[in-house]
Amino acid sequence: MFNIILFGPPGSGKGTQSERLIAKYGLKHLSTGDLLRSEIDGQTPLGLAAKSFMERGQLVPDEVVIEMISSALDNNPQANGFLFDGFPRTTAQAEALDKLLIQKNTEIAIVLALQVSVEELTKRLLNRGLTSGRMDDINEEIISARIKEYERKTAAVAEYYSKYQKVVYIKGEGSIDQIFDALCKEIDKRIAA
Ligand code: AMP
Fold first, then answer.
1. Is 37 part of the annotated catalytic residue set?
2. Using N-to-C axis directions, what is the helix angle for 62-74 and 45-55, rounded to 10°?
3. What pLDDT score was predicted for residue 77?
4. Cα(133)–Cα(94) distance, rounded to whole angstroms?
5. Which partner for 154 in 21, 39, 106, 150 could form a disulfide, CB atoms 3.0-4.6 Å apart?
6. Is ligand 1 within 6 A of the CB of residue 21?
């Protein structure tokens, strides 16, 4: 199994690059944002509990997302590996993920951290809001709350994995192809190692 975390602030291109990476490497895409949105669409109890946090640009409580990821791992026993997108977003989530992966005799191979300036993130998210239909992309206040949550709680996840020499920083500005090539280069190095 080869497991990747695609890491970065909201709007850094994780979703776009994930689609390409899973196609190239045959990985199972696990995006907690997508999973939560489908729970909201299905009006499940989990979706209803998550919605109020998401509408305000705040993180959903750790227990909720950890349980969701745990089920997703159990539901995909045949996967060649997972691409985690938007998870883990706190150190507690990272610790929980490590434990879940150990139970499956596997681990995170690499954390690819996309770096994009706050000005560019805001521009991209406002732009995406014009077509995405996402409630949390539509106004600058919510976007700014999401970026602050990232700085306050999520940035520490990169430090957590740095201790294990797993983090590689990639410039997330430039063309989609250029960024994809840079990501693939790092993955290929790890696969060959
Ligand atoms: P995303 O689609 O990754 O931008 O996530 C959209 C929203 O879903 C976030 O602003 C959070 O409210 C929530 N969310 C997604 N993933 C997580 C996570 N790993 N931990 C907590 N909240 C999350």
1. no
2. 130
3. 94
4. 30
5. 150
6. no
Taking all residues of the chain, what is their mean pLDDT, rounded to a whole number? 96
Reported residue count of the chain is 193
Q: Is 190 a catalytic residue?
A: no
- 143 ligand 1 Cβ < 6 A: no
- Scan for tokens 């920083």, then name that residue: 169
Q: Mention every residue, 6+ apart, whose C-beta is less than 8 A from residue 72.
A: 30, 35
> Looking at the predicted structure, is the pLDDT value of residue 193 above 90?
no
CA–CA distance, 14 with 10 (Å, rounded to integer): 8
Confidence of residue 135 (pLDDT cuts 50, 70, 90): confident
Q: Which residue has the tokens 């970026």?
A: 147
Q: What token pair was written down for 187?
A: 């993955």
Where do the domains of the chain lie? 3-188
Cα 188 to the center of its chain, rounded Å? 20
